[in-house]
Amino acid sequence: MKIARFVARGVEQYGIVDGERVQATRGLPWESLEKTGTEYALAEVKLLAPVQPPDVIAIGLNYKLHADESGMPYPAAPVIFLKATSAVVGPGDAIVLPEMAPSAVDYEAELAIVIGRSCRKVSAEAALDYVLGYTCGNDVSARDCQLKLDAQWARGKSFDTFCPLGPWIETDLDPDQAPIRLELNGETMQESNTSDLIFSCRTLVSYCSHMATLRPGTVIMTGTPSGVGMARTPPRYLQPSDHVSVTIEGIGTLSNYVRADE
Ligand code: ZN
Predict the structure, then answer these.
(1) Each residue of 27-50: pLDDT tens digit?
(2) Least C-beta-crowded within 10 Å: which of 87, 136, 251, 259?
(3) From ligand 1's centre to the CA of 8, what distance in Å?
(4) Can you list the domains of the chain with their CATH numbers?
(5) Is 77 exposed, middle or buried (0-12, 13-18, 19+ CB in 10 A)?
(6) What is the DSSP string of 214-232?
(7) Distance from the CA of 111 to the center of ligand 1, in angstroms?
(8) Do strands 163-170 and 88-89 pair parallel, antiparallel, or not at all (unpaired)?
């Protein structure tokens, strides 16, 4: 099942995507998926980020080839950082190059876990019972802030628009074998499979739940495969009018364009 958040006739709402239609539902998807009886053509609604997360937890260096290209050893435990929830945007929205750090903005295709039931200190075996579903994420990163200018990652990972999510939440995905790809202006830059994750989704949910209570709507970004812009020669950072899309088979495609700050 695909759960979308969208605006139709000026009202923000959730719904279930069925082919080219979306059937509106009542309330929040982790509370109810009761249909209201109203249905729209997908083409006539504006899709939003499928969740307004209370927290966005992100995982660094979770694909071996990406750790290699970053010149970092494989972590012994998940490397956790946070992205500001104010950075979340939806499908079709702009990624804005920040005025104070416009020149080393990079893309990172990621499988994003969406928590559906509050949990704390769950085992890896039980962890996926607390997951509502999965969506595509782009962990946009200002590399100069992240790696050169600041002592830690908060600013470089949290500029406005640096967390595109979408196009919807897929509830029926096998998170252990999902092909993932990022295209920049139609050219494939990242291509991998979540079977290459160092720490699996169930391990990540369990580990993060031992750090903090995971509330419904919490997003866990699971890390990016190799092929990021900073690891290329020369580096390929995002430029105004670039189009960047993250595709995860079984979910769909999250597309965004890039513009300068005004
Ligand atoms: Zn990332």
Answers:
(1) 999 999 999 999 999 999 999 999
(2) 259
(3) 32
(4) 1-48 (2.30.30.370), 49-260 (3.90.850.10)
(5) exposed
(6) B-TT-EEE----S--GGGS
(7) 10
(8) parallel
Task: Determine the distance separating the centroid of ligand 1 and the alpha carbon of 222, expressed in angstroms.
Answer: 7
Is the overall model pTM greater than 0.85, yes or no? yes
- Alpha helices, H only, the chain: 64-70, 124-127, 143, 154-158, 201-209
SS (HEC) of 140-190:
CEEHHHHHHHCCCCHHHHHCCCCEEEEEEEECCCCCCCCEEEEEECCEEEE
Taking a 5 Å cut-off on Cβ, the residues next to ion ligand 1 are 108, 139, 224
Residue 109 Cα to ligand 1 middle (Å):
8
CA pair distance 130, 181, nearest whole angstrom: 26
**Centre of ligand 1 from the C-alpha of residue 139, in Å:** 5
CA of 47 to the centre of ligand 1 (A): 23
Q: 219 CA distance to ligand 1 centroid (A)?
A: 13
Residue 224 Cα to ligand 1 middle (Å):
5
Which residues on adjacent β-strands are paired with residue 169? 3
